Amino acid sequence: MDVAHRVSPFMASYLEQEPEAGQLFLEIAQRQLNRQQLSRLRQLLNAEFPSRESSRDEPPATLASLLTPERLVLQLSCANLDDALDVAAGRLAPACPGMGAGELAARLRQREEDVSSAVGNGVAVPRVFQTERPALATLVTLARPLQVETPDGLPLRLVVALMGPERGRSSLMQLAHVARLANQGLADQLAGAQHPHEVFQRLQTMEPLG
Question: Residue 170 class from Cβ within 10 Å (0-12 exposed, 13-18 middle, 19+ buried)?
């Protein structure tokens, strides 16, 4: 889990669902498979267990569709990631009757302690799960980068907090979608945004219309 924590929240989420996969990763490492052997293993996986991605999968929602102007916080000045999580929780709370901002923030902070939400390229994607609630998000840009542990060593500049009803495949696909946006320069695109309409305009150029 430590390796997954440092490398990918996507991997860490999978290991949470299937802990035995961690033992398989360790066995591969213990055998010290070389590139050619790993290629053979990949061929076996593709033959025996084809990718589950197919046209039957519902595509993840666009990030823009999960946001509202009220759930955008631009140029936040904060001392650490916990401060940003507190602010994100405060914007998520109105959509969660019966759950206060304090409880949401505590959940986000606890999950951050368990699994780093940093996906690289200056972006973190903390998540909280709440049954019988629609998927939604809060986006926070930071006035000053935060020096936190990230997969690529780059400072944190943007937080996208996701809330969804389940921990299953759809949740992982949503996380992967935001991670792809991060790889495409999401933090750079939104760094100078001063108004919500600028955020939505820039997201529209990065995502297919929903």
Answer: middle
